[in-house]
Amino acid sequence: MFEATLWAFLPALVAIVLALVTKQVYPSLFAGIFVGALLFAEGNILNAFSDIIMLIAEKLGENGGILVFLVVLGVFAVILSATGATRAYGEWAAEKITSKKGTLLATIALGCLIFVDDYFNCLTVGSVMRPVTDKRGISRSKLAYIIDSTAAPVCIIDPSPPGRLPSAASSMGKMRSSPLL
Description:
Distance between the termini: 55 Å
Radius of gyration: 23 Å
Shape: elongated
Order of helices and strands: HHHHHHHHH
Number of domains: 2
Number of strands: 0
Structural class: mainly alpha
């Protein structure tokens, strides 16, 4: 109904204007998506929400498990920060590590220890080592470089990255239901 008309620009216009006015990108994008779904559903709000949910589920497909895994890791990183665990480690490390070189080596070592996921590695090592490197006069760009240089390579070397776990678990479930076992 709204194809090839000026109404097709409305969702993008809503998203852009809201993002510029509110300085909040994600809610603005969601508002634009909702306006587009509302146009697609011909004004029916329930159908618009249903269409959004169905489209997201269709597009995520098998990647939904990975998305949930990454969200859980992000929540875990926030919990570590909120409880003061990262601050406590940072204070301990600041007392024990007295040189710039030692701080950089500790950052590399911590990056090698946390190999669950490269994003989780960046979140945790960055939040833990930032106060220590700031205290030692190491630039944040250098900290970011070191974290980025250790995060992905260490996770690639790890023999059981989280991306393979969901597929391995589903194949194990198939093996158990096999008549041969």
